[in-house]
Task: inverse folding
C-alpha cells in the first residue's frame, strides 16, 4: 500500500506537457464580473410581489421543497439546444425534452408564459429571432429551416422535410441562422453539408460558399453564423477549431485560430462579440455537455476581453448585457452583471 501511494504521488508530481506547474492555469482573459441563475425557467429569478419586501421569506421559499415550478405540471426541460430573447424581453427556449413543447417562452423572471411546436420538430437545434420579431429555427432531424410568428404560426419553410440534400432547395442537418440588415438570411448548413447559404428575406436562394476541408472558405461543421454591423459574416468552423470571417458576398477576409472549438456566436447591435466555446474540439467531444467558457471578444482584433467558465451550446446577450446560455445539460443559465462583495 505504501509503495502504491508513493507511486501515485510521484505521478502527480510529473508536469504534463503545457501544464502550469506554479498553480492553476490562468484564465484565457480577464474574469467577467457576473453571477448566474442556474435554473432559469424552473425557478423564478426575482421574488413574487407579495414576497418582494421580505428577503428572508423569499430565501426560505427558494430553498425549500415548496419552491413553485413555473412550468405546467409534469413538464421539464430536455437538452436545451438554443435560447433567444425577443425585443420585448420574452425568452424563447428550444429543447429536446419528451414531455414539454419544444418551444417554450418565459418572461424575464423565468415565469412560463406559453409554448408551441409539438410534433413539428425532430431534432431541435438553432433558434433566432429576426428584427421583425419572427422566430426562425433549424432542425437537424427534418433538415428544415422554418420561420414562425411569435405564437408559432408557420410563415416560411426552407428545405424538404425528411430529405437530406446539397442543392438550392435542400439542406443536410442545418445548424444556425443570421440576418442581414436588409432582411436577407444566412444559413450554416453544417452537420451534413459544409457550406453557408444566403437567401432573400422572401426565401429566394441567392448564393452559397464552402466545401469540406481546412483551407480558407472550407469547413468541417460550420456550427454557428453571425453578422456584424458592416455585414461581415462570422462562421464558427467548430471542428477546425477556428472562426472564419467573410464579406457579405462570401469573400474570405481572415480567421481566428486562438478561440478554440466555438459552439455558438452572438454579435450585439453595438458589435460586441460573444461566444460559447471549448479549448479544442477534442475537449468539446470528451466533455460533451460539460465544461466550456463564455468569452467576450473584440470584433476587430479577436482579443479576448473577458471569460466565464460555463457549459453551453447556445448564447444570447440582451441589450443590458444579461447573457443567456442554452445548455445540453437541460438548463438555461442566466448570467447577469454582478459580483459578490
Result:
Amino acid at each position: 500500500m505504501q509503495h502504491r501511494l508513493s507511486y501515485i504521488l510521484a505521478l502527480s508530481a510529473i508536469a504534463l506537457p503545457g501544464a502550469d506547474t506554479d498553480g492553476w492555469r490562468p484564465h484565457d482573459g480577464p474574469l467577467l464580473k457576473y453571477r448566474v441563475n442556474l435554473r432559469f425557467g424552473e425557478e423564478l429569478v426575482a421574488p413574487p410581489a407579495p414576497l418582494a419586501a421580505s428577503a428572508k421569506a423569499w430565501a426560505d421559499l427558494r430553498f425549500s421543497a415548496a419552491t413553485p415550478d413555473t412550468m405546467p405540471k409534469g413538464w421539464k426541460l430536455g437538452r436545451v439546444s438554443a435560447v433567444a430573447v425577443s425585443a420585448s424581453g420574452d425568452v424563447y427556449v428550444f429543447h429536446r425534452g419528451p414531455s414539454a413543447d419544444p418551444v417554450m417562452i418565459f418572461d424575464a423572471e423565468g415565469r412560463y408564459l406559453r409554448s408551441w411546436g409539438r410534433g413539428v420538430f425532430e431534432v431541435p437545434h438553432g433558434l433566432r429571432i429576426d428584427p421583425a420579431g419572427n422566430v426562425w429555427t433549424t432542425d437537424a432531424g427534418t433538415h428544415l429551416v422554418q420561420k414562425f410568428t411569435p405564437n408559432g404560426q408557420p410563415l416560411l419553410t426552407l428545405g424538404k422535410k425528411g430529405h437530406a440534400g446539397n442543392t438550392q432547395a435542400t439542406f443536410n442537418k442545418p445548424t444556425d441562422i443570421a440576418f442581414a440588415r436588409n432582411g436577407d438570411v444566412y444559413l450554416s448548413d453544417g452537420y451534413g453539408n459544409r457550406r453557408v447559404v444566403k437567401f432573400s428575406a422572401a426565401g429566394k436562394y441567392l448564393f452559397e460558399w464552402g466545401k469540406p476541408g481546412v483551407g480558407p472558405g472550407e469547413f468541417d461543421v460550420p456550427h454557428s453564423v453571425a453578422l456584424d454591423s458592416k455585414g461581415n459574416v462570422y462562421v464558427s468552423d467548430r471542428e477546425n477549431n477556428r472562426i472564419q470571417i467573410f464579406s457579405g458576398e462570401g469573400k474570405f477576409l481572415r480567421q481566428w485560430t486562438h478561440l478554440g472549438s466555438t459552439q455558438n456566436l452572438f454579435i450585439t447591435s453595438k458589435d460586441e462579440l460573444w461566444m460559447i466555446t471549448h479549448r479544442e474540439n477534442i475537449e468539446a467531444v470528451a466533455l460533451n455537455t460539460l465544461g466550456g467558457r463564455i468569452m467576450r471578444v473584440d470584433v476587430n482584433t479577436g482579443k479576448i476581453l473577458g471569460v466565464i467558465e460555463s457549459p453551453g451550446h447556445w448564447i444570447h446577450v440582451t441589450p443590458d448585457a444579461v447573457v443567456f446560455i442554452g445548455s445540453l445539460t437541460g438548463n438555461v443559465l442566466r448570467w447577469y452583471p454582478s459580483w459578490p462583495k
Observations:
- The mean pLDDT is 89.
